[in-house]
Amino acid sequence: MESEQEQEAGALGMASGSVLRGLPTGADGTSIEALGLNAYYGQKQVLREVSMKIRGGCVTAVIGPSGCGKSTFIRCLNRMHELGAGARVTGRVALDGQDIYAPTVDPALLRRRVGMVFQEPNPFPTMNIRDNVLSGLAMTGRLAAGQADEIVERSLRAAALWEEVRDKLKEPGLGLSGGQQQRLCIARALAVEPDVLLMDEPCSALDPIATARIEELIHTLAGKFTIVIVTHNMQQAARVSHDTAFFLGGALVELAPTNRLFTSPRDSRTEDYITGKFG
Amino acid sequence: MQRRHTDSAFEAELSELCERLVLMAERAAVMVETSVSALVARDTVQARQTLALDARVNRDELELDEMCLLLLAKRQPMASDLRLIAVVLKLVTDIERIADLAKNVAERVLDLNAEPPVREMEDVAQMCALVLEIYRESIAAFATLDVVKARTVIERDDEIDAAYHTLFRSMLLQMVSDTATVERGIHVQSVVKYLERIGDHATNLAEHVIFVAEGLDVRHRGLASQEGGSDGQ
Fold first, then answer.
1. How much is the average pLDDT of B15-35?
2. Does the distance separating the beta carbons of B5 and A264 come in below 8 Å?
């Protein structure tokens, strides 16, 4: 449902990506809902009663100071958190209404639906570019004969890397620049055709140009996928996301449309954090 | 308690920006005061002094613009900091216009001093006192981000408008009854129009105070509006 402002912006002929109108959103996409989510490492509670809705086909940024639980939160969205020693989760996370912590859910299958890109680019060091892209499908035995070339090209194109590597697919993934390696990891995540892409500070190890390429890629992917991105860079959160969630001390403080959160946050703790009055 | 920025240099830069805007606004207030004092006293020297003050306000505008651009580039401000800097960029234009209007008043003084005195000058002086009082209230509201004071300023613009209409009509009747007063009457009508415009700029200042302090854009909506800033999405 378009707001009055969006309708006016549309009537004035503003493109859907204009600053005023905000980023274009996907017509649909997998929505995520956390309800009373708690996460622990042993005795230590790192997430406290987090309840929030993530809109399908949109980019949601998660910001907050170090140790606020933002990375733990996204790791709960594909059940990676529970892989740590002594880690456990209570509460509910639903993908399109289905509880991912239900006993019938296979975490490995879930992680195909909910892919993840990490802070440091981590292509498999012994694999070439092509095999890196195909690794997720190969490991799960889902790589149908004759489809490999098509999947490699489609995934690398979606990750905006195809033109740069099309002639060196047999070369090692580690031979690429940092930014290219990160896009290779995104291509690897896209190859298994996920519904959701989780990104944990995907640009923190990249230079400004490589960062700009990843941000442009996020714009391209938004609408096709539901994206949740953790970032320390508030300007990046402001640029790439539709909604932003501010976490503090393991709790969600404020979730709001990005355009509003960075200009007029409702909660004084959000205001203090984003204006640098924190700590 | 008002939280301070972790980066004390940024805190100091924002404080300096606010102080310099207040200083610029006060310089423009002095110009208004001097120009009307010259009008009432028929003092050509004082009128010329007003004209000379304008250059300093123009320089303030350029310097404050540059400070804002540098702060935007270097600090990439968010939330209330962003609103403050965006508002200062707008307010320098309002204040510079106030100084220009004071200059216009002083120019009319030079014309009026070539004519016989005008009877309504006492009423003009009263309107000026009202405009100055409200304008200085708006400056004080900005200096302390006092939204209560800002709302009072916005409400009191009606007083200025009423004084303007009364004086305008009074001068009109005077000109109709005595055509020899037409030229000076038009000059006085221009002066009261300038004063009325200064009141409008003071209102702008007050509206922006509310935006900085509360993120609430009351422009063109009236104070009753409770809608916040753009939700954007």
1. 97
2. no
